[in-house]
Amino acid sequence: MDFELTSEHREIQTLAREFAASEIAPFASEWDRDRRFPAEVFSKLADLGLMGVCVPEEFDGAGCDFLSYVLVLEELSRADAGVGVTLAVHTSACTLPLLMFGTTAQIAQYVPPLARGEALGAFALTEAGAGSDAGAIVSHGTESATGWHLAGTKQWITNGSFADTFIVFARTETGVEGPRGISAFILDASQVAVTREEHKLGLNSSSTVDLVFDTDVLADRLLGERGRGFGVAMATLDGGRIGIGAQAVGIAQAALDAACAYAKERRAFGKAIGEFQAIQQKLATMATEIEAARLLVYRAAMLKEHGKPHTVAGAQAKLFASEVARRQTSEAIQVLGGYGYTKEAPVERYFRDAKVTEIYEGTSEIQRLVIARSLLGELGRPS
Ligand SMILES: Cc1cc2nc3c(=O)[nH]c(=O)nc-3n(C[C@H](O)[C@H](O)[C@H](O)COP(=O)(O)OP(=O)(O)OC[C@H]3O[C@@H](n4cnc5c(N)ncnc54)[C@H](O)[C@@H]3O)c2cc1C
């Protein structure tokens, strides 16, 4: 067992950290306040090869491994979690499932522009009546002479206003309810319409929208096997959750950095507050929980990279890291006192951004169900 990052991993971590420090962190509060999607950041990330960091070189990616991608997400999210989720959805919820389930022709057409960052990806599963219960979607696909007619609405789709390529899920098999009978399709931006931009608690530099579609697609837009789309969605989320764990670790680390800096400079009762053991105890707990979360995330990433089962490891990593992020961003506000509660300090943004990591790509309750099922087998499955 080797807990050291390789020199290649450290190199990409440093690249992402330096980019985030100069191109993201100084502007993150402004983007949050103005609810602005910083499109220019993604062009610069593309120049660095980071929009396709774990995509093989033959498809115009950087050819790095999944842990490298996780390291990049952690560093970007440390500066701005909205930038982090934009890259996470683009990569692990759009580019990677195309690579995993696409035909040779689909991969050749869609993956290189995504990996070069010339196109942005999105993943559209959730609907008004189907979130955790994703098998309840009612968007539907009807077979036509040339392919499919797809119609439906989707809710809370990250990157929706800016994406070029969408993976969209629709029910295609009649008489089959629940998770069976769903298929995955590849749609272009011209085939979906944005009906509403969501106003969120945090993550304000990311785009989250409702979509509607009512369009004909050729048969070659079916991704994976007909009626097996739920499997595409679940495999996608298995990997995606590791990325959300990395996002949570990045946010929590930013909160710890801010709390440590403040503990050294803020004085009360004639001392730096960092001299009080109550503050030291908080910082020590924060650092320990964040490190534990980081190790769970890196372990899950390595299992995925080596083609080993990673459903439970990914669920554990996301569950723990997201709860650490929520808890420890709150503790960071406590260390900063009244200042931490104001918009002058970044920790209130970290606190707002952290919360969503307990919700999307499967809530904490759903992660616990995934983990419990692995412990209890059939007993843990819904009846
Ligand atoms: C900012 C943001 C971005 C998002 N981006 C995307 C995206 O790009 N693409 C996409 O498809 N979706 C996206 N989503 C949707 C997200 O994945 C869902 O919000 C999430 O899966 C939860 O679904 P829900 O909100 O409908 O909650 P619900 O399913 O209604 O759950 C409500 C509560 O009930 C609990 N619950 C539900 N079922 C069970 C159960 N069986 N046992 C115990 N508790 C249960 C949940 O844990 C939760 O606490 C996004 C959401 C947000 C907020």
Automatic annotation (TrEMBL):
Gene3D superfamilies: Acyl-CoA dehydrogenase/oxidase, N-terminal domain, Butyryl-CoA Dehydrogenase, subunit A, domain 2, Butyryl-CoA Dehydrogenase, subunit A, domain 3. Its cofactor is FAD. One of its GO terms (molecular function) is acyl-CoA dehydrogenase activity. InterPro entries: Acyl-CoA_DH_CS (IPR006089), Acyl-CoA_Oxase/DH_mid-dom (IPR006091), Acyl-CoA_Oxase/DH_mid-dom_sf (IPR046373), AcylCo_DH-like_C (IPR036250), AcylCo_DH/oxidase_C (IPR009075), AcylCoA_DH/ox_N (IPR013786), AcylCoA_DH/ox_N_sf (IPR037069), AcylCoA_DH/oxidase_NM_dom_sf (IPR009100). Residues 122-214 form the Acyl-CoA oxidase/dehydrogenase middle domain. Residues 6-118 form the Acyl-CoA dehydrogenase/oxidase N-terminal domain. The keyword Flavoprotein applies. Residues 227-376 form the Acyl-CoA dehydrogenase/oxidase C-terminal domain. Keywords: FAD, Flavoprotein, Oxidoreductase. Belongs to the acyl-CoA dehydrogenase family. This is Unannotated protein. It comes from freshwater metagenome. The lineage of its organism: unclassified sequences, metagenomes, ecological metagenomes.
